[in-house]
Write a structure and sequence with these properties.
Blueprint: H1 7-13, H2 25-38, H3 42-53, H4 61-76, H5 80-96
Helix pairs in contact: 1-2, 2-3, 2-4, 3-4, 4-5
């Protein structure tokens, strides 16, 4: 299985203070969400992940990655039902693409 998050995303999630490159808007929103998670600001992360969803095609791998991030962030702030629904939408797509399910653990 391959990794869902890129090396850049993993570095940001683990607290690397990197200047974010100019990427597609949806990817930039996801990077900002990961950066917010690393800084302990889960509510801001949720906003970025939710915004990123609108920039990807339904059923796409990129949307599924953002949706999993969104769901995990919701669960972190005790919104388990909404978070679980997001994971139920994302995980089958990730598995279909042979992508490893991931956590947002620091």
């Amino acid at each position: 299985m391959r990794q869902a998050l890129t090396q850049l995303e993993l570095q940001i999630l683990h607290g690397a203070n990197l200047e974010l490159p100019e990427l597609k808007v949806g990817l930039n929103e996801r990077l900002k969400g990961l950066q917010s998670i690393a800084q302990g600001d889960d509510l801001t992360a949720i906003s970025h992940f939710l915004r990123s969803l609108g920039f990807f095609e339904p059923q796409s791998l990129e949307r599924a990655i953002s949706e999993r991030c969104y769901g995990l962030a919701l669960i972190r702030v005790q919104r388990e039902v909404e978070g679980t629904f997001a994971l139920e939408r994302s995980d089958p797509i990730l598995e279909q693409h042979g992508v490893e399910l991931f956590e947002l653990e620091l």
